[in-house]
Each structure stands twice: as structure tokens, then as C-alpha cells.
Amino acid sequence: MPNLICLASWNADLISHVARPVERGETVLASAFEILPGGKGSNAAIAAARQGARVAVLARVGDDDFGRMAFDLWHHERIDVRAVEVARGERSGVAQIQVFDDGDNSIAVYRGAGIGLGAAHAERARAVIAASKLVMASNEVPVACTAAAFVIARAAGVTTLLNPAPAQPIDDEVLALIDVLTPNEGELLALAEMDGEDIDHLTGTSSSGSATSHNARLAAAAHTLLARGVGAVVVTLGAAGCRVYLRQQAPVDLAGHHVKVADTIGAGDTFTGALAAGLVAGLPLLNAVRRANAAAAMSVRGHGAITAMPTLRELDAWLVEQAG
Active-site residues: which are they? Predict the structure, then answer.
């Protein structure tokens, strides 16, 4: 039986490599083009599977070549697909991605058949959810499906993890069902549903752009979410690493790793999946976060979302190398 189930968004990544962001109304020539597997949920599921978790995906894909691409990939990664629905006459999701020369990217996602995931799909997967150690999702999955799955998980004592990307409001009823939340900085501030003046008032700082002011704003936003019911907030900070917020505890900073960046597609998904796998393996939260932080750093060394996602053995070896 799987010990981790992912509510998985799926899309094919259509990737154009361009020197810089394209302006409105502008046409530029791309230096390269690729079609690669993507979707935050699918990516995180693969990251978790490579880190040793026994993963199942709950997903909905189109009856098209991109949908068949998903099944081929998941079978190759030894992911359980029994909870995947093929939507007849519908298209699979697509992400149009621009990768810039500095390794950064911009992404527009069409969710396709995945938009049809709902509470009924979670209910049909009740037995797998209740028997798992962890359920993870992202905001690319319709909230009705996530909420229903997390209710089932909470009743069964199963850990829940949400990567809240793309950023969108989350009701308190859903926040209270989240054991671990993994936003980036922008998502964290957006989820707190406070504008700059609200956060400045709470922290006694001004929006001057200083590092101290910014960190205070992040802390205020994190503790707002903790007060609304989230168990732990793990904020990814890009090259700077990540920070862990818990109730009534000082935040814990984990520095980033210095690597040569090919592109950053899938780094956050790698972090989420590796963190989930660490928790399923029984690691304490901070230990699981340390491994996720390193796995995300390794992932940016290759092009595309999953190319450089490390296996458990590769991550162990790299951590030994870094420590030496």
C-alpha cells in the first residue's frame, strides 16, 4: 500500500528559453524549446517517490497524448495510478514557461482536466488516504478536493501538507486542517490576507525594504496563519534557503546551498515532495526540512522540473559531500 498520497495536478510543460522576460506586444526569438512533464502535484509526487516514499496520485488527466505521457511517467517512477481518472473528450493541462538566461522563469498554467477534481474523487480514495501517513496537495488542485481529502486525513490521524501555489485565499476551515504549509515569501504574505500597512502595524516596522523589516513582515504573516490553525509554516526563500515557523517558538533559518543554476523550474515542488518523504520516513520536522532544502538545491542544476530531482541515494551522498 502507498504511504503517501498526492492530490496531483498534471500538465505538460512547454518551455521556451529566452534571454529575458517578454514585454507586452513584443515578439522575441527563443534559443531552445522543450516539452517536459510538469504540474506541481505530479512534480512533488515524483520528488517524494525518488526519496523513498511509496506514492499514489489522485489526479484527473485528459484523454490525449499529454495524458498518456503522465501515465508513462508515473509508471516509470513506480507511482500508484489507481486513483487517476481519464477524462474522455477533455484536454490535459499545459504550462507555458519562459526560462530566462539568469535561470529564473515565468509560468502560465492551463489546468485542463485537472480542474474537474472534486470532493467525490477524494471520497472514492478514502481508503488510500486513511491508510497513508501523509496527504499532500497544492493550490493547482481545486480546493473542494483538497478540503475533502484533508478532512478524511485529519479523522484518520494522517499528516497533511499543502504547497499554497499559486497563491489564493484559503478559508480558515481549510487552514485548520493543514499540518505543514510550504509557501514562498510572496505566497506567505498573500495568504495572511493583510496589506503592508496591517503587517507594519503589527510589527512596529515600516515598509522600508530593509532585511529586518522584511523578516518582521514574514514573521507577522506566518504567525497570523499559525493563529488561524496551521500547524507549521515552512517558508522557502530561494537561494537563501528556508525558514520554519512554529507556535510560541523562535523561527529557525536553514541556509541555502551554493550551486550552479540551470533553471529553477520545479525547485519548490522538489522541496515539498522531499519534505513529505522525510516526514513519512519518520524524521522530525527540522531534519526533514534540511533534506528538502538540499534536494531543492540539487534540482536547479538541471533543466526542467524533474531532470535533476535527486534520488534518496544521490541526496545522501551529496549531503555527505557538503558536510566534508
Answer: 269
